[in-house]
Amino acid sequence: MKTDGLSAWQLTISANPWLYSTELKRISDLIRDPLRKAGMEIAVMNYLMMTYLNVECKRVLRTLPSEMQSRSEVTRLMSDIDNLIASPPMSQSAVEALGKRALDTVKPEC
């Protein structure tokens, strides 16, 4: 290394502190075959929707007091979430509708 190498390098990191430069890309961009690429995009979307339902919607419903969690409306909604997860591929509109139902159950419109 040159004697001034470290001090010269330190001046460059004040403007751009990253060790390397990159950008995020979809994993499907690595696949050249159009059919497999489309399949990967569907799989990733289904995984994201399943995670949203399993983690977020159910978490929101579990924040309800225990006496409300046993209400038929809540148990039916949990069952609808489980049924949708069990039958992929999921439609985005169905997932969004269940998400809205979950939020409306926790915080009904006034």
Describe what this molecule looks like in 3D.
This protein is an all-alpha fold. Helices cover 65% and strands 0% of the residues. The protein has five helices and no strands. It has helices spanning 5-13, 34-62, 66-69, 72-86, 92-106. Helix 2 packs parallel to helix 5 (92-106). The longest helix has 29 residues, at 34-62. The protein is elongated. It starts with a helix and ends with a helix. The mean pLDDT is 84.
What structural class results from the helix and strand content?
mainly alpha
Mean pLDDT: 84
Strand content: under 5%
Overall number of strands: 0
What is the overall shape? elongated
Radius of gyration: 23 Å
- Please estimate the helix content: 55-70%
Please describe the biggest sheet, giving its number of strands, its sense, and whether it closes into a barrel.
none
* Uncertain stretches: none
**Helix count, DSSP H or I runs of 4 or more residues:** 5
- Report how far apart the termini are: 69 Å
